[in-house]
């Protein structure tokens, strides 16, 4: 029991409000703009205007700022799966938590 709780928090979370572009295929292909609540090496939580079903595969792109990368800003594309949805965030937004299964750093274009 305590081991699984510990596992969930095994990496440092950064409480960041960053814009993130989210793509998913619920009711057809969708692309939405969202804002992160927090980011870690294994997952992300973001606020979006409509719920995405738990278990849905998603892809998202965000730019990590210099205070995280300790160098310049870096764009990252991630693939993952929604693990939790909480519509009690207020302001008409839904909090969506997802695990990150894979990621790639994108070159500046």
Largest sheet: 6 strands, antiparallel, barrel
**What level of helicity do the residues show?**
10-25%
Number of separate structural domains: 1
Number of helices: 2
- Overall mean pLDDT stands at 88
Given as residue ranges, the uncertain stretches (5+ residues, pLDDT < 50) are 1-7
- End-to-end distance, in Å? 46 Å
Please count the beta strands (DSSP E, at least 2 residues each): 6
- Shape annotation: globular
Q: Give me the CATH architecture, please.
A: Beta Barrel
Write a structural description.
This protein has a single domain, classed as Thrombin, subunit H. The radius of gyration is 14 Å and the shape is globular. The protein is mainly β. The longest helix is centred in the first third of the chain and has 7 residues, at 2-8. Strand 2 and strand 3 (43-48) form a beta hairpin. It is built from two helices and six strands; from the N terminus they run αββββαββ. It has helices at 2-8, 66-69; strands at 19-24, 30-39, 43-48, 57-64, 74-86, 94-106. Helices cover 10% and strands 51% of the residues. A six-stranded antiparallel β-barrel has the order 1-2-3-6-5-4.
Blueprint of the fold:
Blueprint (H helix, E strand, L loop, with lengths): L1 H7 L10 E6 L5 E10 L3 E6 L8 E8 L1 H4 L4 E13 L7 E13 L3
Antiparallel strand pairs: 1-2, 1-4, 2-3, 3-6, 4-5, 5-6
């Amino acid at each position: 029991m305590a081991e699984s709780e510990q596992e969930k928090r095994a990496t440092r979370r950064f409480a960041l409000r960053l814009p993130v572009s989210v793509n998913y295929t619920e009711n057809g292909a969708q692309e939405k703009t969202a804002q992160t609540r927090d980011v870690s090496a294994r997952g992300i939580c973001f606020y979006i205007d409509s719920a995405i079903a738990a278990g849905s595969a998603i892809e998202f792109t965000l730019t990590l700022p210099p205070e995280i990368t300790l160098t310049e800003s870096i764009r990252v594309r991630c693939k993952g799966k929604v693990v939790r949805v909480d519509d009690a965030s207020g302001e008409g937004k839904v909090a969506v938590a997802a695990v990150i299964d894979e990621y790639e750093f994108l070159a500046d274009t």
